[in-house]
## 1
Amino acid sequence: MINNILCFLLCLLLLPSLSKSKYTSKQCSPKEKKALLQIRKELNNSDYLSTWTSNNDCCDFIDVNCDQTHHVTRLTLFGDQHSGRISPAIGDLNFLESIVLVNLPNVYGPIPPTIAKITKLEDLTISNTNVSGQIPDSLGRLPRLLTLDLTDNKLSGPIPASLSQLRKLLFLYLTGNQLTGPIPDSFGSFKQHPSLFLGRNQLTGKIPPSLAAFDISILDLSGNKLTGDASLLFTSNKTTQQTLYLSSNYLSFNLTKVDHFPPQLTTLDLSHNNIYGSLPNSLTTLDLVVFNVSYNRLCGKIPVGGKLQNFDSSSYNHNKCLCGSPLHSCK
Ligand SMILES: *[C@@H]1O[C@H](CO)[C@@H](O)[C@H](O)[C@H]1NC(C)=O
Ligand SMILES: *[C@@H]1O[C@H](CO)[C@@H](O)[C@H](O)[C@H]1NC(C)=O
Ligand SMILES: *[C@@H]1O[C@H](CO)[C@@H](O)[C@H](O)[C@H]1NC(C)=O
Ligand SMILES: *[C@@H]1O[C@H](CO)[C@@H](O)[C@H](O)[C@H]1NC(C)=O
Ligand SMILES: *[C@@H]1O[C@H](CO)[C@@H](O)[C@H](O)[C@H]1NC(C)=O
């Protein structure tokens, strides 16, 4: 009897601590909490992140999401209240699937190469920030990455050839940085043929021949300093190519010699280059929605037919001697 009462009392005493320890095991891992607290510290302890304290479960931190196993899977930060750097401690959040850091004008410094430790990462977006320095080579080691979006930052230096090792990548956005050097030759060997957005940088050199065999749906190389022949992109055996933005470069080739275009091509912007020759008749076979060859050195009659007369003169202006509808008639 005494024993029973004792047990009862003991159980009453033990129960809360038992359930407490069960509860504790459901809290986020100390390693992940530590990493998040370090991230907050390097973002100048922003007041906005006031829920990010050692007393709270890090799954309850604002702008942090966990899965059922209580691991941090998403980190989403935006706004000018954050100032400082992206801590290398972010690499200790091993369970992250998504990092979205956007519209952070007061966040600067490099992209931590430690991000490459997050092997579950599917979406890495760092966009519209003051983040600078080179794109770390190590990002090419993220085996599950589907989207790499580094649009509109202050990144410089070359595009790492290693990015072509991202086997699952579907979208690569590097638009609006200060990237220099050539488009890596390795980009012809991407596994999934991701859409490539490399516009508004300072890329130089020729379009690598490896891209000729690359069946890609969107390729944006506009606003760079690329030279040479782009006609290698117009191979007719491409079945998915729909969109080509090549405007505002120094591309120079004879367009007369292009007798086939990818049959699915709907957007072709070649404006502001040094393209010469004439417009080939095969352009009339395309179901074009966007077409612009203005500001080149083209000559001769605009072929009649297809969609070519659907565009106004601004698609054809400022060439050497183009003529015919929608421009003035040929003499
Ligand atoms: C961090 O915050 C302090 C105090 O609010 C401020 O003086 C300092 O300029 C901030 N540092 C950065 C890098 O924004
Ligand atoms: C961010 O970049 C802008 C434009 O280059 C600059 O004016 C501003 O001072 C930068 N801010 C920080 C915190 O570095
Ligand atoms: C398409 O043609 C190019 C150039 O002739 C060739 O290099 C490439 O392998 C071809 N691609 C396919 C998918 O057949
Ligand atoms: C462009 O190529 C065509 C066809 O090969 C040729 O007749 C023409 O002279 C070339 N134009 C220039 C400017 O080289
Ligand atoms: C063609 O490009 C020129 C130069 O960028 C631009 O001014 C014009 O509006 C464009 N026309 C169309 C129809 O897109």
## 2
Amino acid sequence: MTEPAPVGLQARRSDLEARLGAVHERIAAAARAAGRGEAPELIVVTKFFPASDVRLLAGLGVRRVGENRDQEASAKAAELADLDLEWHFIGQLQTNKARHVARYAHTVQSVDRPQLVSALSRAVAAENQRRADEGLPARSPLGCLIQVDLRSPAEHAGDAGPAHRGGALPADIGTLAGLIDAADGLRLGGLMAVAPLGSDPAPAFARLMELSMVLRATHPGADVVSAGMSQDLEQAVAAGATHLRVGSDVLGPRPALR
Ligand SMILES: *Cc1c(COP(=O)(O)O)cnc(C)c1O
């Protein structure tokens, strides 16, 4: 990840500024169309793009960024530690990476199983011990969103085990919410989902909103609904999402390989 020459950097800045502005306009238009007073929060998904892009985005007013791989996110967060950024982890997370993620993440949006809840809670305790040893203040509680698998039961049935896209079954939300709520160092924020591939996102997001309403009946503070990406942000705004996760429409097409 070498820094581009200043001229390249200027051009990239203009490019990002234009794309970011267009995305903000789409969000505002969708919010108006839905009669929403407040537009949802934008999380810019910077996976596969260099830290230099994240720095430019911060200069353009972006505060929330999303990443889906620990190794890449750790490196960027360390390189950009001077910036006031909120790092949202949005990818499938192995329990052995929890310690890393607790160092830099504001929120893990992809909590999908009990073992991950306990691993994250232990990770926050370890991180706070590390900070105490260095005379640093404790971190804030780690935000946790429960990722929900919105596919139909028939689609679940065709699952190839752990290879599926991630997410807890709707029936397991209550149990996971209770575990997160009871765990030290974690704060239950709400729900996250990715619309199932190849079907209309609107009914999937409507289902997610229903699940959020059920969750909020017992956990009123868990009011985050993270839904909507480049392709379906309008449907997510219409459904009532509080947070959008937009990557390619801000940064451009992701490099296929690296
Ligand atoms: C990559 C990713 C996004 C952003 O997708 P785009 O189509 O690039 O906007 C959002 N959410 C998750 C979970 C992702 O992995």
